[in-house]
Amino acid sequence: MTYVDGFVAAVPTANRQKFIDHARYCAQIFKDHGALKVVENWGDDVPDGKLTSFPMAVKKEADETVVFSWIVWPSKEAHENGWEKIMADERMSPENAEMPFDGKRILFGRFETILEE
Q1: Do the Cβ atoms of 46 and 66 come closer than 8 Å?
Q2: Strand ranges (DSSP E) for 1-117?
């Protein structure tokens, strides 16, 4: 089964194209190091919650949009090897891959796929 990195972030709505460009740039690096697929989703109907919600989790501000993303890897081992190479890849340095959002408010996790239909 595949292995997945999942992310939720708040991106300034005005930075939509910058985010797309950044995501496309990074997706190629991830794929160069073994990722099978990179998926980026721009929030369209992401309601505020009373107890929990994506907007609350990332402390979304009024001028921001929630982004939900994932990277699919062939295995946990491929993920671990890939991330080690990604972090060492000069293309990912802050001066080459400046994030168009506040990276301190990103949620992320790694997931073992248990069902894929």
Answers
A1: yes
A2: 3-12, 37-42, 64-73, 107-112
pTM of the model: 0.93
Residue 79 parent element (H or E): helix 76-88
**CATH assignment, 3-112:** 3.30.70.100
Judge contact between 29 and 92, C-beta under 8 A.
Answer: yes
* Element holding 86 (H helix, E strand): helix 76-88
Rounded to 10°, the helix 76-88/16-32 angle is 110
* Residue with tokens 């062939």, as numbered in its chain: 74
71 three-class SS:
strand
Query: What are the domain boundaries of the chain?
Result: 3-112
Query: pLDDT tens digit string along 52-85?
Result: 999 999 999 999 999 999 999 999 999 999 999 9
